[in-house]
Amino acid sequence: MRVLLNFEGELAIITLNRPEKLNALDSETRKDFLKAFNEAEERARVAIITGSGKAFAVGADINELILRNPLSSLEAGKLGTELFNRIEESDLVSIAAVNGYALGGGCELAMACDIRIASDKAKFGQPEINLGIIPGAGGTQRLPRIVGLGMAKKLVLTGEVIDANEALRIGLVEDVVPHEKLMEKAKELASKILEKPPLALKFAKKALNASRTMALIDGLKYELSLFSILFSTEDAKEGMRSFLEKRRPEFRGR
Ligand code: COA
Question: Structural domain boundaries of the chain?
Fold first, then answer.
């Protein structure tokens, strides 16, 4: 299997597992990833996505890229884009635990996740320009939304590879941790999220995602409608009651 899937309660751990090729995303790996993601979505509420060996993922498999023509590129690229959109739109909260190189599609995969934690050995970049192409699964779209247009242009136009601290400085990752602590820290974050009320989590993610596509005036209305719906849930009553009664809440996902 080119992708491993493990569960720890409601946490899924999806590991790209083609270390000898630095987890290059060939079609088989992408297919296995989709399968693992589908299963994770059914059984878990939070997923950590990581890579085995010294890379998170080094992007599309160049052995496959070299065989593409415009039509096959459109087909394969569409699948990649759809996969990353799925991650972004899913109710599953995704944490990229970036253990090493996250280049090209690897960086795009990390950007499709909700939160990125990097090992201090991680490296990031969109080096497609060096191959005579451009990013094809979000690198020109998600990257500027995360780090700003100027910085995205610098990275995409130069193909420069940056280290974890620079990624933190520009806001591409939310945290950098010692390499050996990466999974521990990612799991800590996952546990913190898993303690939260499930419906509020889903709505929070939906509202935050809407900030990318909706005009502010519409986004504010959308936020208010999701906010208001949550007052119909038992968990909202429990959250507020437990605060007033000075005890830990017990959320049930209703
Ligand atoms: N597609 C296919 N194979 C890849 C690959 C990719 N994107 N990136 C690395 N590999 C393979 C190498 O060909 C090599 O295979 P081999 O051992 O059979 O020769 C193996 O993975 C290890 O890579 P190697 O280049 O020897 O490791 P390195 O530590 O010297 O360099 C990188 C690491 C990441 C700097 C280098 O592999 C690289 O630049 N890769 C391409 C990244 C890229 O352009 N991604 C965008 C694709 S659109």
Answer: 3-194, 198-244
98 lines ligand 1 (CB under 6 A): no
| Residue 128 is among the residues annotated as catalytic for this protein | yes
Give distance in angstroms: CA of 25 to centre of ligand 1.
11
Distance CA 198, CA 229 (A): 14
Does domain 198-244 fall under CATH 1.25.40? My reply is no
> Is residue 109 within 8 Å of 102, Cβ to Cβ?
yes
Give CATH superfamily name and number for 3-194. Answer: 2-enoyl-CoA Hydratase; Chain A, domain 1 (3.90.226.10)
Average pLDDT (35-53) is 98
Q: How far apart are CA 253 and CA 58, in angstroms?
A: 38
Q: 97-134, pLDDT tens digit by residue?
A: 999 999 999 999 999 999 999 999 999 999 999 999 99
pLDDT digits (tens, 9 = 90+) for 65-93: 999 999 999 999 988 999 999 999 999 99
Residue to substitute in 2, 18, 21 for testing ligand 1 pocket (most ligand atoms within 8 angstroms of CB): 21
